Every structure is written in structure tokens, then in C-alpha cells.
Amino acid sequence: MPKLMKKHLEGVRVIDLTAWLAGPFLSMQLAALGAEVIKIERPNTGDPAREGVPFAGPAGMRFEGRAPEDISLIYLKRNRGKKSITLDLKSDRGREIFRKLIAKGDVVLENFAPGTMESFGFDYPGLKAINPRVIFCSISGYGQSGPYRDRTAFDLTIQATSGIMAVTGLPDGPPLRCGPWIGDLVPALYGLSGILAALVSREKTGRGERIDISMQDCGFSLIMDEALDILVSRGVPTRQGNRNPRAVPWGTFPTKDGNIAICVYMNANWKVFLEAIHREDCIQDPRFKNLGNRLKNAAEVEAMVTGWSQNLSTEEALRILREKKIPCDPVLEAREVLEDPQLKSRGMIQELRHPLNAPTGVKTAGFPIRFSEIPAEYPGPAPALGQHNEEIYLGLLGFSKEELEQLKKEGVI
Question: Which of 330, 358, 387 is the last residue of a domain?
Fold first, then answer.
């Protein structure tokens, strides 16, 4: 009888060298799926995200006057369920210890600037020589090759160079960044897919793999459905605001007490929509009779919808449209999202935990995938700096307590 798995990635060990957002978000998903994630941080300082305001600790949340046990909220949110050890990879002894970790790992994950791992003496051939089964995943702004390889990148610069900002904003307005940090988050999810695929492949071949994730590549892949070359050649603005260049009305419209999102796509939906808002007089209007004409007269269509919606409450407008099966929903403000009954019913709104079990008073998102057989969730709070040094160095690597103390004195850990 096959062994009953407690987690999907049970038995998979990830050596996590990442910092900030893209890499930590990726490794956090691996932790939710059951992998053991050992986060390697610099002695004394750790992941730079630990320094981001505000901080949370036993005394509550604060923006200044930080206490020693306070930890940045962004670090707490991005590193749930991991184990933290400290290790100086710039030291000879640190690199020697890292080789021992590679030998016992399944995945090595890093988001240094290209060439950094090589400067430490750990290129992929070197890692493979230590452990032929290891999967080596790198996330960088522009990948390990190409003319932009050595550029420094953040979410904003990736949204700028990938085309995301070219399609975000109003037609006559400046380019805008997409609200969430998708320049970081999407590469993390692509990296997750790559690692899972490599783990499956390794079961067949017995060999690990090198995975090269470019944040720009990932951002560009998101706009593949937008025919940028066609829009540009025909003089159509690539920034459409909330509009859909292939459907109208499709956007957000004001009500007496808020805003609603309305999506009308097919001609049949258009007829039903007109009946819902009591504008049957427009059914045979040549300006609106088919989708092509409606797109040409989008401003008039939107003015018609606004004239209807702004005289109703959000609840009234939604009731009318839902009775006709027109896709619509309220535009929720942040405080409303945090109280949304649908998200609550699926366990998505959770209290952010602190490694000292101190209340943070902050909400965070749960793991969004529901499995029928093996549950997945973030297994615990983010770790304190070096919290798992003894567990990993004594238990996994077999060092003595005396050796551990010596490593501390030498600043290796």
C-alpha cells in the first residue's frame, strides 16, 4: 500500500538564498506545498526586507522606535513557513558549509545579480558536481543572458520595460504601474512552475536542471493577448484604462454610493443589457447594433451606462443586472475586501503571525489553492533571524555545539 503523503512536496528540501520579494514569494509557495525551506541569511542583518517599515512585535506595530524583537511586516508576510539560518557565503568556511547543504538539498533558489553565484564559486556545473540531482533556479531582472543581463531591476523597472506600463493607464494619460507588485510576483509563480516541472522530470531522469527566470520575460508574457503590433500600426491607444478593446460596455461605472464593474461581451448580452436598463430604444440603433459599431461609439455607450448607474445605489444596480445574468460586481474598497464574506468563507483572510506569537493585528492572505486530498497552507510564521541554526547545523549537518559556538565567534553564522 503506498505511503500516505501529508504534503505534496514532503521530503523536498529547498536551500533558499533569496531576498526581497520575487524569490521569497516563490519559496513561500513551496513551503505551503510541504517543502522544507531553509532560508540562508546574512549574519546579524539578514534579508534586507527585515528593515522595511512598519514593524511588529510584542509591543504592537510601530513605524519607528523599533525594539530588538520587532520584525518588518513585509518580511513576516513573505517568509511564512520557512526555517532561517545565518551563513556568510563570502567566507571560505561559509562556502564549505554551503557545499554540505547543497549535497543534502533538492532545490537551490537565488535571486542575486547574475554572476554573483559564480563569484562565490557556485556556478551550475559546480553545484551539479556536488549533487547531480539538484535543481538550480535563478530569478533576475533580465535573465542570465542578453544585453540587459547586468542591469539592476525592481518591480517598477520591470513593468516599464516589459510592456505592462504601455498597456496600463488611460488613453490620454501617462503610463501607470499595475497596483500589485506583479513585476516580482509573476516571475515567482513562473519559477514555481519551473521547479515543479523539474522535480517531475527528475523522477524520470535522475538529474537536476538549471532554471533561468527573467522578470522582464515574465512581464512581457502577460501582455501576449494584447496585439501590440496591430494596435500600434492602426493608431489605436495601447492604454485603454478599464476598457476592453474587444467589448463594450466593459469597465467601471459610478453609482450613488460607489462603483460597479460591468462586462457585456456578445451581441445577445447587449440586447439583454439594454432591456435591463430600459433602453430598448437602442436595440435597433445602427450605432450600437453590432460589436464593431459599439466599439466605434464606445464613449456614447459608456455615457448611456453612466446615466443609468449613477441614479441607483450599488445594491440596486447589481440586483437589476444580476436578475438578467449580466456579469457585474461592486468595486470594493480595501476595508471592504478585508471583510468580504466570500474570501472569509474560503479561509483567505488570516491573521499574520509573529515567530514570538506576538499579535500583529494585521491581516494577510492564505494559500489560494484548494486540494481535495492533501491540504496545503503556509505552515507557520516567518522565522526570527537564525532561529533554526541549531536545528540545521547540529541536526542536519552534524556539527557539535562547540563547533557551532566557534562558527558564531568567527562570524561565519
Answer: 330
> What does the block give as the cell for 333?
474598497
pLDDT one-digit tens code per residue, 165-202: 999 999 899 999 999 999 999 999 999 999 999 999 99
What tens digit of pLDDT does each residue of 64-77 get?
A: 878 889 999 999 99
Q: How far is CA 84 from CA 18, 39, 349, in A?
A: 12, 5, 25
Q: Is the residue at 241 inside a domain? A: no
How is residue 134 written as a grid cell? 539538484
Segment holding 39, helix H or strand E: strand 36-41
Between CA 266 and CA 161 the distance in angstroms is: 34
Catalytic residues: 184
Q: Is 243 a member of any domain?
A: no
Closest CA to 397 of 94, 76, 111, 47: 94
When computed from its CA atoms, the radius of gyration of the chain, rounded to whole angstroms, is: 26
Q: What is the pLDDT of residues 27-38, one digit of tens each?
A: 999 999 999 999
Alpha carbon distances (Å) from 93 to 71, 179, 381, 413? 29, 43, 30, 10
Closest CA to 374 of 13, 8, 34, 2: 8
Do both 128 and 160 map to the same domain?
yes
103 and 178 housed in the same domain: yes
Q: What is the pTM of this model?
A: 0.94
> For residue 61, which phi and psi values (nearest 5 degrees)?
-100, 140
Residue 1 forms part of a structural domain: no
Domain housing 151: 13-222+345-409
